[in-house]
Amino acid sequence: MSASARLFALPDLGDLAPGEVRRIDDTPLGPVALVNVDGELHATSDLCPHARAPLSEGFVEGHWLVCPTHFAEFDVRSGEARNAPPRCRPLVIHRLVRDGDRYCLEIPDK
Amino acid sequence: MTAEQPSIEAAATPVGTVAALWRYPISSTAGEALDEAELVETGIAGDRQYALVDPEIRQTASPERYRRWYPAPLVSSRWSEGGRLEVSADGVDWRDPLQESGRELLARHFGFPVEVRAYGRDRSTDAVPRYVRAPLHVLTTASLRALERLLPGSSVAVSRFRPNILLDTPGNDDAIEQSWMGRLITVAGVTLRVARPCGRCSFTTLRQDGVPYDRDILRELLRTYERQFGVLCDVVRPGRIRVGDEALIAQPGGGKP
């Protein structure tokens, strides 16, 4: 985390089970998808880079978040897209910071 | 016959017959099978005139995006003989969705208030189209058979693909309609121009009457067809067509394909 980056505390996610995804509205980074991959939490934009479908309405397979509309797949660790429509950009990935029992989104400097 | 409409039939080649006709008065709902259909410039008369809308958040039904709309294709819509729009969740109890009793049926089905609105441009009173498309959707039985061979464990029901016209095309010419791009289809004096492939989405995976939820459908369409299955057509010459009518294909200008 850079010295001036801010943190945005996320709500309690205690019941987000492995293989599940949940949308968090109204963060400074827009709607965010939180994905539990084998107990490890990942944060991405909730908007599919292709047609802005809400990825939290899709499903999780391993470390791939699958778009509900066209089944484009995004690696929640890197944002890499596969089986995506032509010219689909990578998914925006956000950094998470553990703060005691809570997770926070790192809000990068502009 | 006009200068723009040369003698298509004389130079056309038979490709099959009309196996079935459907229209979907309310988008996203299961539609109604027809014995005959009036084709107008905008497609089959009465097709996709209305949409389901959540009035509280002004969201047009989009089952390919939101799980809350997954039950949409379990509702049927039709035009009554008297020209009244009707919906049903069980195929027995049909109600007018523009009246309170129909809205009650829809609210019970979805678990939240749902209205039926005509498509238009005013977001406060109309349903806003989700996408712009050519008006008529044509699919062949050859394509369905090809997909069945690829997915022997799946239910490859035609209802997943929601065509307006299903053409019974003999043989195993996989995705034959994709080779018709830019050509003309004539059926009983009606002329269609094949405009573009129909790009598929997760609607094809949804549970419908007698058809289970199945992600393999879209996965296979992605893997084998780059999501293109069936074609969208413009209506060049309107008229009436019936199940059983012969379909012919020709090059624009009257040449043989």
List keywords for this structure.
heterodimer; A: 110 residues; mainly beta; Rieske Iron-sulfur Protein; 4-stranded antiparallel beta sheet; 11 strands; 39% strand; B: 257 residues; M1 Pyruvate Kinase, Domain 3; 7-stranded mixed barrel; 3 helices; 16 strands
Measured between the Cα atoms of the first and last residue of chain A, the distance is: 14 Å
* Structure summary, number of beta strands of chain B: 16
Number of helices of chain A: 0
Give, in order, the helices and strands of chain B.
Answer: EEEEEEEEHEEHEEEHEEE
The CATH superfamily label of chain A reads Rieske [2Fe-2S] iron-sulphur domain
Explain what the structure shows:
The complex is a heterodimer of chains A (110) and B (257). Chain A has no helices and 11 strands. With 110 residues, chain A is an all-beta fold. Chain A has a single domain, classed as 3-layer Sandwich (Rieske Iron-sulfur Protein). In chain A, strands 2-3-4-9 form a 4-stranded antiparallel sheet, with no helix packed on it. In chain A, a hairpin with a 5-residue loop joins strand 7 and strand 8. Chain B has one domain: Beta Barrel (M1 Pyruvate Kinase, Domain 3). In chain B, strands 1-11-10-14-13-12-16 form a 7-stranded mixed barrel. Chain B has a 3-stranded antiparallel sheet with strand order 4-3-15, with no helix packed on it. A 3-stranded antiparallel sheet of chain B has the order 6-5-9. Chain A binds chain B through residues 53-54, 57, 68-71, 83, 85, and chain B through 64-67, 201-202, 215, 218-219, 222, 227.
Summarize the model shown.
With 110 residues, chain A is an all-beta fold.
Write the layout of secondary structure elements.
The complex is a heterodimer of chains A (110) and B (257).
Chain A: E1 6-9, E2 21-24, E3 32-37, E4 40-45, E5 59-61, E6 64-66, E7 73-75, E8 81-82, E9 93-94, E10 96-99, E11 102-107
Antiparallel strand pairs in A: 1-11, 2-3, 3-4, 4-9, 5-6, 6-7, 7-8, 10-11
Chain B: E1 13-23, E2 32-34, E3 36-40, E4 43-44, E5 50-54, E6 59-60, E7 76-79, E8 85-88, H1 100-110, E9 115-118, E10 136-140, H2 141-150, E11 165-168, E12 184-187, E13 190-199, H3 215-225, E14 228-237, E15 239-242, E16 246-250
Parallel strand pairs in B: 10-11
Antiparallel strand pairs in B: 1-2, 1-11, 1-16, 3-4, 3-15, 5-6, 5-9, 7-8, 10-14, 12-13, 12-16, 13-14
